[in-house]
Each structure stands twice: as C-alpha cells, then as structure tokens.
Amino acid sequence: MNNINIEKFNYERPRDECGVFGVYGHPDAAAIVALGLHALQHRGQESAGIVSFDGNQFHAERHMGLVSEHFTKTKLLDRLIGPAAVGHVRYSTAGDTVLRNVQPLFADLAGGGFAIAHNGNLTNALSLRNELVKHGSIFQSTSDTETILQLVARSKRSDTLSRFIDALFQIEGAYALVVLTNKKLIGARDPLGIRPLVLGKLDGHYILASETCAFDIIGATFVREIDNGEIVIITEDGLKSVKPFPPLGSRPCIFEYIYFSRPDSIIGGLSVYECRKKFGAQLANESNISADVVVPIPDSGVPAAIGYAEQSNIPFEFGIIRNHYVGRTFIEPSDQIRNLGVKLKHNANALLVKGKRVILIDDSIVRGTTSVKIIQMIRDAGAKEVHMRISAPPIIHPDFYGIDTPNQNQLLAANHNLEKMCEYIGADSLAFLSIDGLYKAMGHKKGRDSRNPFYTDHCFTGDYPTQLRDQESKTNVRQLSLLSEPL
Ligand code: AMP
C-alpha cells in the first residue's frame, strides 16, 4: 500500500505559471541556464530545475525553492556539466507541490535521454492521460507535461523528432517547450503561440527563453520569436525550422502584457513596459476623475500609474511601499499577529496620501483580496477619497493556458456588477479599462475585432481559442462563458 491519494493524483487540475530556458553548445551551459532562470523567476518561484548533457550522460538537479537558493557554483552547477542544458521555473498553486512535479522532466526513451520543460497548460491532458493509463502507462507526476513525455515514448515513429511531433499532434492547449536530447535542443510553440518563446544567441550559440529579459542578463542578442506552430531544432550544424501544423493565425496571450511578463521584456515587437504605460493613459482617457495624487499598487501597477498620471496631469507618487523580502520561507503570522494589522507586503507612505483624494492603480482584480486590503490601508493612512482604477478589463472567465486564475465562482467580476464590486472593495469609485481600450493602447486603432481577435483574451471575453476538452468532459464551462457578457 502506498499513501498516494489516487483521486487527486489523477484528476488534479494543473495550474502552472512557468518559465523555460535552453542553451546548446556553450561551455558554461548550466551556469547560463541558471542566470536565465534567475531573470525568469517572476514566472515561477516554487521550484527550479536544470538538466544538462555532457556528450555522454545527462545530469539533472530539481529543487523546491528559488534559483538562487540552489544553483550556485559551489553547490549544484559543478555537477551540471556539459555544453547543453535546459531549465525551468515553476509556480503551481493547486495540489501537489512536490519534487516529482519539478521540471525539466526526464526519461530514458528508445532513442536516448529526453528532457522536457514546459510553460503553458494542455487542455486535453487529463483525457489523454486516462487513455494512456488504460493502456498501461505509468505516470510518475501529476503534471500535464508528463503526458507529452508518455506520448513521445509510445509513438511508433522511428526518430526522436518525428516521435515528438507525433505527440504534439495529439495535445491541445498552450505550450512553449524546450527539449534536450543527446543530439539536439528543440524549441516548440503551440499552433496559436499562446505562451511566448524567443530565440537568442550568445557567443555564436543558440538560446531559447520564455522572455527577452532572460537574454539581457547574460548579454545575449535577441534573434527572433519562435513562430506559432513552429519547431526549431538546434544541433552542432545550426538551426532548422519546421512547421508541421496546418497554418493558423497566431493568438498570443494578452495577459503577458498586462501582468505576467517582466516590463523590460519585448513581446511581439512591443515593449511590455510601454504597453502598460499606454494602458494607464487609455484608462485616464476613459475614466478620469478629479484627484490629488495617482498611486500605483507596486510593483505590477507602476507603469500603468505613470501612464495614467502623465495623461491626466495628476501627480504620481509612491504612496505605497512594497517589501521585496517577503519570501516563501517567511513564517505565516498567527491570527493574533495578523489581526494587529501586520503589513507584510505593502505599507502606506502615509504622508503622501493623508488628506488627499487618491487614485489607486492596479493591473487586475482577480478575487479582490488585494484591493480590499490596500484600500483600507490607504483610508487608515488618512486619505480623503480612494478611487480604484484597473488597467485591464474585468476578469470574468478562468484561464486554462498557464496563468493562475481561480474558478469562475471565485472571480470577483464574474459574480458582481461594477457597483457591487466597488462596494465590496470599499472604494469611492471603481473603473476598468475597456476591452477596446486595451486593444487601442496596443496599436489596434479600431479596438478588438470580435471576428478576428489578435490576442488570446478569454479572461475578459470568454473567447477560448482552443477546445477545452478536459473541462467540457466535466462541466459545461464553454457554454457558460458564451452567456456572460463583459461588464
Ligand atoms: P486579487 O487580490 O485576487 O484580486 O488579485 C489581484 C492582484 O494579484 C493584483 O495586484 C495583480 O497584480 C495580481 N495578479 C493578477 N494575476 C495574477 C496571477 N495570475 N498570479 C498572481 N498574481 C496575480
């Protein structure tokens, strides 16, 4: 008997936010991957892993915690020898936060070792997994990424690349993958290019990463984005590209621009920072109000607040200070201490808000928890009025592609109208950026084209760009999403 909860092991819904990185042919491959992962740490803080290949053997190190806690020269990097390596950072909120789910996953397959790191979520992983288990597959993790590994292992094709492509034809959803075999580094992006993946070069060697900020840290140059539906194969002979899927228009995830990516990254040719500033400026155009000061909720609200302040001519101030040293390991305060009002993460810069009419800017409201706490804090600091402005539309639909949003019944905007939301968070007024305003700020002059939307924006619109096979088999979420209108 073992003590694994079979029900949970089989049916946990994966909800990962992740970053991936890979390098081929560089003498310091693992150290470069560690630096790249460090720059991608915002995409996942729960676990980090690197697999390297030394021309003969694979070496793997997977750990719970931050990259900098484990991947130091004297500790692990000396063990990760070889000129090729892939790595992964992961943050998962649901279910098992255990070592067996830490990526890159690795298996010895018929053609040799195969390490895979995945950003995104598959939407048919559970259905495929159930079929695979019926036919004898033994799963070691609860991660949807293992489904890809199992499909590669079972493919009848002759070479590793064809087996990998065979597996990709069976999966649905979002994936940016980096794979390391004994001969190749492979990068792959799903047919819609939902999650980002970029190609760079360092000292003549190719690099793959989730975001361009990971190139800056190592002084690598940006070459290009991997296209939607593209697979790049990097070997000693250089880079080859294949596009095996029927061509589809790309639908990159708009939430990368709003919250997820680092502001110093460039995605789809657009600076994430500039986009956020423009969201703030557009928000000021749509719902300005007389006030004395514009205050961001740091860090995510900062660029939008700068844009809002510039556009509205209301002074910008850091009226809230964020403590950056609230790590995972910090003790959870007891209820008694919590009730005393300990502010672990944010504190009001009271002199800047006292007696003032404050416009607070954040990038999103999910459950509303942050807004409730911060608005109360600003009122306690003596603000005369508190007006909440959100630089994205209301989130009314859950994500199934690798952004952690809760079930629909926990999303504040899915269950309350604007007035009730304002009341709940305790603001004097509340406004969101419109969906057309969001697109306009990103250079789409006419706003969102509902017949041909440029981005994956289901969180706001309910327009899921792929089948949600696992969900449809359990609920009628798709039909529900079609019925509710954005605010
Ligand atoms: P909530 O407090 O549940 O309303 O969440 C909103 C806050 O969480 C905002 O300050 C956002 O910057 C941040 N946020 C938005 N999306 C995510 C996400 N997927 N993971 C973690 N934090 C998020």
Instruction: Give the structural class.
Output: alpha+beta
Structural shape: globular
Which residue ranges are poorly predicted, with pLDDT under 50 across at least 5 consecutive positions? 1-14, 476-487
Strand order in space, largest sheet: 3-2-4-1-10-9-11
The total number of structural domains is 2
Radius of gyration: 23 Å
Number of strands: 21
- Cα separation of the termini: 52 Å
Q: Give me the CATH architecture of the largest domain, please.
A: 4-Layer Sandwich
Strand content: 15-25%
Could you name the CATH topology of the largest domain? Answer: Glutamine Phosphoribosylpyrophosphate, subunit 1, domain 1
Helix content: 25-40%
Average residue-wise pLDDT: 91
What's the helix count?
Answer: 19
> What profile does the largest beta sheet have?
7 strands, antiparallel
CATH superfamily of the largest domain: Aminohydrolase, N-terminal nucleophile (Ntn) domain
Cofactors and ligands? adenosine monophosphate
* CATH class (first level) name of the largest domain: Alpha Beta
Tell me what you see in this structure.
With 487 residues, the protein is of the alpha+beta class. It has 2 domains: 19-251, Aminohydrolase, N-terminal nucleophile (Ntn) domain (Glutamine Phosphoribosylpyrophosphate, subunit 1, domain 1), CATH 3.60.20.10; 274-461, Rossmann fold. Helix content is 30%, strand content 23%. The chain has helices at residues 6-11, 29-39, 67-70, 125-134, 145-154, 160-170, 213-216, 255-260, 272-287, 302-312, 335-339, 350-353, 369-380, 412-415, 418-425, 435-441, 458-461, 469-474, 477-483, and strands at 16-24, 47-53, 58-64, 84-92, 105-109, 112-119, 176-181, 185-189, 198-202, 205-209, 221-225, 231-235, 238-242, 266-267, 270-271, 293-296, 320-322, 346-348, 357-362, 385-390, 429-432. A 7-stranded antiparallel sheet has the order 3-2-4-1-10-9-11. Strands 5-6-7-8-12-13 form a 6-stranded antiparallel sheet, with helices on one face. Strands 16-19-20-21 form a 4-stranded parallel sheet, sandwiched between helices. Residues 1-14 and 476-487 have low confidence and may be disordered. The site of adenosine monophosphate (AMP) has 16 residues, from helix 13.
